[in-house]
Design goal:
- The chain is 39% helix and 18% strand.
- The chain is an alpha+beta fold.
- The chain is built from 11 helices and 9 strands.
- α3 packs parallel to α9.
- The strands form 2 sheets. Strands 5, 6, 7, 8 and 9 form a 5-stranded antiparallel beta sheet that branches. Strands 1-2-3-4 form a 4-stranded antiparallel beta sheet.
- The protein starts with a helix and ends in a 7-residue tail after the last strand.
Length: 320
């Protein structure tokens, strides 16, 4: 049951590209691996790694000192905080949006959050401009009336809170998604998601990129798993109880050798994915879900150990 749900989610999750500077976690081990000229060694997830993960929790500096963020990701984190502060959109609510970062010529970074899954119109777009560590943010629906629940043509914090609750019930989730789509169509907004030749070309290009990323690896998968896991824990502030429930999803299936490899923003990466859940995915009972449950993805550069992309899906977005 869980794998089925997960694969459906993966089919609709858009990759939000971001770029980070080199993050030499486990600095000595990573630099040693990069310096090697021979064939890269790729290990399976092992008992030894499990022990290493436990030790990681006991060490403050082992993996964290080198987790450096680029200006684009630093900007995204500033934008996330400003989005919640001004508009009440939390990290979990961001599952209803697609976030993108774009570097500008003057050194500033523009971060946008756009509603997904037929909710582009009602949720609108939040645009944050980050420069010199400061954020200016605005919403495409600023000044519009958001009262009236799902009947309002613009959905803000009130509706997002209700959507978080209603997402736990499949019937209610389908209802608000249908309502959002109907409002969009009434205002002349309709997006055609039908397949095309461009889709075929995309998947062919992606497959070639996955193979190229696999062939470029210089780090072991164990090393990259450690980097990704530590990034998740620290970036999202997971507590000890949540950390103990994290379950590694990477390598849980392997259709092909390159299954967990991707080219991200032109960088060869290995995907580190963890699930945080109780048993809601097996039982289908989303009322068992607790705070910050969902899917966490970190894409680690196979050559440098840098984090090239990260994302969190609370599984409440209606697209899972």
């Amino acid at each position: 049951m869980m794998n089925k749900n997960k694969e459906t989610l993966k089919a609709v999750m858009d990759r939000r590209l971001s770029f980070l500077d080199e993050a030499p976690s486990c600095r000595a081990a990573v630099q040693h691996r990069i310096a090697q000229k021979g064939e890269p060694a790729v290990k399976k997830f092992s008992v030894g790694l499990a022990l290493a993960l436990v030790l990681t929790l006991l060490s403050v500096t082992a993996l964290t000192a080198g987790l450096l963020l680029s200006s684009r990701v630093s900007a995204a984190r500033i934008a996330d905080r400003e989005l919640e502060k001004r508009y009440g959109v939390t990290a979990e609510m961001q599952t209803f949006f697609e976030r993108e970062e774009q570097g500008l010529p003057d050194g500033a970074v523009q971060v946008t959050y756009t509603g997904v899954g037929g909710m582009e119109y009602v949720l609108g777009t939040y645009t944050a401009l980050i420069k010199e560590g400061k954020a200016k943010i605005q919403w495409s629906h600023d000044g519009e009336d958001t009262s009236g629940g799902y009947e309002a043509k613009a959905w803000g914090q009130e509706q997002l809170r209700q959507m978080m609750t209603d997402s736990l019930d499949q019937k209610k989730k389908d209802a608000f998604i249908s309502k959002a789509t109907a409002i969009s169509e009434r205002h002349g907004v309709f997006e055609d998601h039908s397949s095309s030749a461009a889709d075929t070309a995309y998947f062919e290009e992606r497959e070639a990129g996955k193979t190229a990323a696999l062939n470029a690896r210089k780090l072991t998968e164990d090393e990259m798993l450690l980097i990704g896991r530590e990034f998740i824990i620290r970036n999202y502030g997971l507590n000890e109880e949540q950390t103990a429930r994290m379950e590694l999803y990477t390598n849980s299936f392997r259709d092909e050798e390159n299954s967990w490899y991707e080219m991200i923003n032109g960088k060869p990466c290995f995907q580190v994915e963890y699930l945080l859940y109780n048993d809601e995915y097996e039982t289908g009972d989303m009322t068992k879900r607790t705070e910050m449950n969902g899917y966490y993805n970190v894409f680690v550069n196979v050559e440098t150990g840098a984090v090239e992309e990260y994302e969190y899906n609370s599984s409440l977005g209606g697209q899972d």
